[in-house]
């Protein structure tokens, strides 16, 4: 009996192994081609980020990609999303990268993984955890022992999650990118030698291999930046290169005179900042370029095919000569072929019509969009005085204003308070403001300072026994360019009034807004009814609003914030992102899966509170192009 049992187990193991082996595929970069199961293929991919889409919608979005004609999906991996605190990892819910990749495989899509550790992506700090700035001896994005120690820990932990999903182990991951647009960084950091830059870049590729990634590696850069960004042994790919002849020339130069030729970022839209027009790209332009690639055997990846949303505090920022910061919108619609809410667009149809003429597989129809609802009026019941609330909270004392990082806080807001025994007046200057401040004297609003338009000073008058209060918002850490290494938030330099440095006896109250503010825990004297006469006293003061609404049916919707000032919104405890009256975004996407039948709760924090708000509503069509710069 034991003999037969043993034979049965052996046969079971053999058939299991055979079945697993039959499910395995092979992918190679070979003889100038992408080769899948021995057949040369062309990669037609779309960039889509798991963290910008509720996980309940992942499969729907994958089906959208298939319907457009794509055979692959690419995604960055956001280190700061998964390690919010040193050694504290989270791969659950909307962070479940492995599940995202598995769904892609089930839907017949190959996966291109872009783990960074730097990713840009208009994402907070380019994907780096904010707390890296507190590590002694750390120098970001260079051949630095401390930095490379942490990148190795990150990549090791990432491999535990997704390593078994490589095509070499039966999964859908066909390629892994090392670093990201490093050639751009090399061109911006001339203070670092090219030899050191190359040493660092090569070490990231080496770390990826050491932790276990064994699929083909690649780099991505602008075609004129390959010299600084390529790594021998990794396939160089070009971002934003429309000229086929130039693409082939530069890839040949750095890849032994052969392909394959790939545009790792083909832009069907573009990123958008607060206070600036939302870029629009014509569908016909993208359709023509798509056909140009396909007709010439070029592989490509639409960045973005579907942008999604920068929920919470995940949006990053850029900068230029005119603006010390250009914060990115909450919406990451990107004017992409698939809209923020997952809808088919004219651009989607144009691209699909081109692709289906060049592929030898049938294109399924696009799945139906999720139901939409409109809530004309959500009545708000309570409003709370944030400044009064902070007076009841424990504050951190300091001889000077402390940064967010010194306060061990990553995101949100900090209230800086300073008491003056003697009157003082003059020009208040905060050159180290990071990033946006509303200023109060004895609780009364007196002005705004703003890093976007380099407004760092204002006239001020503080009476005898008066209080100066400065509410500072982190509007997102810079995610691209050489300034990424200077990303502390809050007040990072001395505060001055005229030529007087204001030192000693500063109080800092931390307001991370990492969880929805709980009205039931607030002191009774800080909360009032919207309909009460005392509510009017809060005009001009940072305030929290709370309301409830009842739904018979749920569905996607867009919260209409065009009559509000500046702040954030929580729906059923989830931070759905920032709003700002300057636009161009005037609505906030609320996924239907975050709503529920029955009673729902909304909490709104408005930093400006220029009038008492009694209600808020939703609409079915987003407003993403309404610029109101006069309200800056």
From TrEMBL:
Enzyme Commission code: 3.2.1.23
InterPro entries found in the cross-reference section: B-gal_1-like, BetaGal1-like_ABD1, BetaGal_gal-bd, Galactose-bd-like_sf, GH, Gly_Hdrlase_35_cat, Glyco_hydro_35_CS, Glycoside_Hdrlase_35
Reaction it catalyzes: Hydrolysis of terminal non-reducing beta-D-galactose residues in beta-D-galactosides
Active-site residue numbers: 181, 265
Sample GO molecular function, one term: beta-galactosidase activity
First and last residue of the signal peptide: 1-21
GO terms, biological process: carbohydrate metabolic process
Residue span(s) of domain Beta-galactosidase galactose-binding: 542-600
UniProt keyword terms in alphabetical order: Glycosidase, Hydrolase, Signal
Domain Glycoside hydrolase 35 catalytic: 33-357
Transmembrane segments: none
Top enzyme category: hydrolase
One Pfam short name: BetaGal_ABD_1
The Beta-galactosidase 1-like first all-beta domain, residue ranges: 401-511
Family label: Belongs to the glycosyl hydrolase 35 family.
Name of this protein: Beta-galactosidase
Annotated source species: Bacteroides fluxus YIT 12057
Lineage: Bacteria, Pseudomonadati, Bacteroidota, Bacteroidia, Bacteroidales
């Amino acid at each position: 009996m034991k003999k037969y049992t043993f034979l049965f187990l052996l046969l079971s193991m053999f058939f299991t192994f055979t079945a697993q082996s039959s499910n395995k595929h092979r992918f190679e970069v070979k003889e100038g081609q992408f080769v899948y199961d021995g057949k040369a293929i062309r990669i037609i991919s779309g960039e889509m980020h798991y963290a910008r889409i509720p996980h309940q919608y992942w499969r729907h979005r994958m089906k959208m990609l298939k319907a457009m004609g794509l055979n692959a999906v690419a995604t960055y991996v956001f280190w700061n999303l998964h390690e919010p605190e040193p050694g504290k990892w989270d791969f659950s819910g909307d962070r479940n990268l492995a599940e995202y990749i598995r769904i892609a495989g089930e839907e017949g899509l190959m996966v291109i993984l872009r783990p960074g550790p730097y990713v840009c992506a208009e994402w907070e700090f380019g994907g780096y955890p904010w707390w890296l700035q507190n590590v002694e001896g750390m120098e970001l994005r260079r051949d630095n022992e401390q930095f490379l120690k942490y990148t190795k820990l990150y990549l090791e932990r990432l491999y535990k999650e997704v390593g078994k999903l490589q095509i070499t182990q039966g999964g859908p991951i066909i390629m892994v990118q090392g670093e990201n647009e490093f050639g751009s960084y090399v061109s911006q950091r001339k203070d670092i030698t090219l030899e050191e830059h190359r040493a660092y870049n090569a070490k990231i590729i080496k770390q990826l291999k050491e932790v276990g990634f064994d699929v083909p590696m690649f780099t991505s850069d602008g075609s004129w930046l390959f010299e600084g960004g390529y790594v021998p042994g990794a396939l160089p790919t070009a971002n934003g290169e429309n000229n086929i002849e130039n693409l082939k020339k530069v890839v040949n130069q750095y890849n032994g005179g052969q392909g394959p030729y790939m545009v790792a970022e083909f832009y069907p839209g573009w990123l958008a900042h607060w206070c600036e027009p939302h870029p629009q790209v014509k569908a016909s332009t993208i359709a023509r370029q798509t056909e140009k690639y396909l007709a010439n055997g070029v592989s490509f990846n639409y960045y973005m095919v579907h942008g999604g949303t920068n929920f919470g505090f995940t949006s990053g920022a850029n900068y230029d000569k005119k603006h010390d910061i250009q914060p990115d919108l909450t919406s990451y619609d990107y004017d992409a072929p698939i809209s923020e809410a997952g809808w088919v667009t004219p651009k989607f149809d144009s691209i699909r019509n081109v692709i289906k003429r060049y592929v030898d597989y049938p294109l399924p129809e696009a799945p139906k969009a999720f139901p939409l609802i409109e809530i004309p009026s959500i009545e708000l019941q309570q409003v709370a005085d944030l400044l009064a609330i902070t007076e009841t909270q424990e504050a951190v004392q300091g001889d000077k204003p402390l940064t967010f990082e010194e306060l061990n806080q990553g995101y949100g807001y900090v209230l800086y308070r300073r008491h003056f025994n003697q009157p003082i007046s003059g020009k208040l200057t905060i050159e180290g403001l990071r990033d946006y401040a509303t200023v109060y004297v004895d609780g009364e609003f007196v002005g705004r300072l703003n890093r976007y338009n380099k407004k760092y000073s204002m006239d001020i008058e503080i009476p005898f026994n008066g209080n100066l209060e400065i509410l500072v918002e982190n509007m997102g850490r810079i995610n691209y360019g050489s300034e990424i290494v200077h990303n502390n938030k809050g007040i990072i330099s001395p505060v001055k009034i005229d030529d007087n440095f204001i030192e000693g006896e500063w109080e800092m109250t931390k307001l991370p807004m990492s969880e929805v503010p709980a009205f039931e825990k607030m002191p009774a004297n800080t909360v009032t009814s919207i309909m009460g006469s005392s509510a009017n006293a809060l005009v001009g003061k940072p305030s929290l609003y709370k309301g409830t609404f009842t739904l018979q049916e749920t569905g996607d919707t867009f919260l209409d914030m065009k009559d509000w000032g500046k702040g954030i919104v929580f729906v059923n405890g989830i931070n759905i992102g920032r709003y700002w009256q300057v636009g161009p975004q005037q609505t906030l996407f609320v996924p239907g899966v975050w709503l529920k039948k029955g009673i729902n709760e909304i909490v709104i924090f408005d930093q400006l509170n220029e009038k008492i708000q009694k209600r808020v509503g939703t609409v079915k069509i987003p407003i993403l192009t309404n610029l109101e710069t006069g309200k800056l």
